[in-house]
UniProtKB/TrEMBL annotation:
Keywords: Membrane, Transmembrane, Transmembrane helix. The chain crosses the membrane at residues 7-24, 30-48, 55-76, 105-126, 133-155, 226-250, 262-284, 304-327, 339-360, 380-402. This is Uncharacterized protein. The keyword Membrane applies. It comes from Pandoraea thiooxydans. Coiled coil: none annotated.
Length: 434
């Protein structure tokens, strides 16, 4: 039975980062990894072993939390005694004019259910041997993205023969500017920004950045992290830059600074910057100035969506400000304002707790440090520029962090087997082996 669970996850891990391929091209939710989320219920029921009760117990707890937010938000909506105007926000389903029990509440909750099933599965059944296939999923995405980049550079049109899903139709002007924003001109040559099978460069950076961090700590070979790192650079995405800054900030908490090495590194960076000054200036113009000036739908327009969502939230009654108007109602261009409107202050606090609790509780071993960097980077990227909660890949690292944290708690209990490294690098084993 353990082999069944292992093999199922091995396929699942390879497909988890893929979001631009649909089993049924006319049905948006039929991403292969999402379908495997729901099929995992059957797998656990048949081959779940002795961890089956814990799996279903955690799943029930997640459902109860969802039901609590569901009941509170819809009750608050019923108390509103005026017609709510959605003029300032972007709705998930513009054709639905209702306020209570909107259809998007249920369709978006299906995506949330997939995330719950994936996260609980990884948390309960994770085995250290899964690291290799987990990283392999990121490497495959990087390789496909590099193939696309080279193909476009040589032929002049996209080489993606797998994507069959449309993106961005709900964001107005962004949908029109999306194709142009995926290309960049450097030294007179046009390149396609790497996006692989995620639909757009920023979503690739968001999904694959944790793989790069974790591969550096969990893989003996440097090739996985090198390939993924190169692919992230070729996205030319500010989302990846935000993730890198966050990861470096977390690493700096435990870093011993060598002044001489720092000076040499700065000198080397200055030399490289001078040698590639024209390329860097072109990237700075396209990746930063154009966004600030609103030339590619990522600057003023995104900030306008944020301000509109906050303005809408401030206009709501007090109870709605605390519990929101309903999960999946609106979708801004950042998770912070999206959560604030949909789930209120309580939703923002719960979401922040889920991501940041392990950051303060994990030990300082290399893998724990990598997971800490992953969580902080993903959290900031989501809150600032990526309102996509249903991409499965980042949630794998959230589940790994909680698994490691739970394993450390068990090891530290008075009934656990003594270990000299209980507070440092704890060996991770599946509950199956108990």
């Amino acid at each position: 039975m353990k082999r069944t669970v292992d093999r199922y996850f091995f396929l699942w891990a390879l497909l988890a980062p893929v979001t631009s391929v649909l089993i049924l091209p006319t049905v948006q939710g039929t991403v292969p990894a999402f379908m495997m989320c729901f099929l995992s219920l059957f797998v656990v029921s048949v081959a779940g072993g002795q961890e089956r009760p814990r799996y279903f117990g955690l799943l029930c707890m997640c459902v109860l939390i969802w039901l609590l937010f569901f009941a509170l938000s819809q009750f608050a909506d019923l108390l509103v005694n005026y017609v709510v105007s959605f003029h300032d926000v972007v709705l998930n389903r513009v054709t639905d004019h209702s306020f209570v029990m909107r259809s998007s509440l249920f369709t978006q909750s299906l995506y949330l259910a997939a995330v719950m099933l994936f996260g609980v599965f990884v948390f309960v059944y994770y085995d250290e041997r899964w690291d290799r296939v987990l990283i392999a999923g990121g490497v495959l995405m990087a390789l496909f993205g590099l193939y696309e980049f080279v193909f476009f550079s040589i032929v002049g049109h996209t080489g993606d023969f797998l994507t069959n899903r449309g993106f961005g139709t709900a964001l107005g002007k962004e949908a029109v500017a999306r194709l142009d924003s995926q290309r960049i001109v450097l030294a007179g040559h046009t390149f396609e920004r790497l996006r692989s099978l995620t639909g757009e460069p920023s979503m690739y950076a968001f999904s694959i950045f944790p793989y790069w961090i974790y591969a550096r700590a969990a893989s003996r070979s440097r090739w996985p992290s090198l390939l993924i790192g190169i692919s992230l650079i070729l996205t030319a995405s500010t989302t990846a830059a935000v993730g890198l800054i966050c990861a470096l900030a977390v690493r700096a908490l435990r870093m011993r600074v060598d002044v001489l090495k720092c000076l040499l590194a700065v000198l080397a960076m200055l030399v490289l910057a001078y040698l590639f000054r024209h390329t860097l200036l072109a990237f700075y113009q396209h990746g930063i100035l154009d966004k600030i000036e609103g030339k590619n739908a990522s600057g003023h327009e995104r900030f306008g969506y944020f301000l509109g969502s906050v303005k809408f939230w401030l206009s709501l009654p007090l109870l709605n400000q605390f519990v929101g108007i309903g999960f999946g109602y609106v979708r801004s261009t950042d998770m912070a304002s999206t959560l604030l409107v949909n789930n209120g202050i309580l939703g923002v606090l719960l979401f922040s707790f889920i991501f940041l609790y392990p950051v303060f509780r994990l030990d300082w071993s290399e893998k724990s440090m990598a997971l800490r960097q992953c969580l902080v980077s993903v959290y900031v990227m989501m809150m600032v520029s990526v309102p996509e909660f249903s991409y499965l890949a980042p949630w794998a690292f959230v589940a790994l962090a909680y698994h490691r944290l739970n394993h450390g708690t068990r090891a530290a209990s008075p009934y656990a087997v003594d270990s000299a490294d209980a507070g440092a690098a704890l060996p991770l084993t599946s509950g199956y082996g108990a």
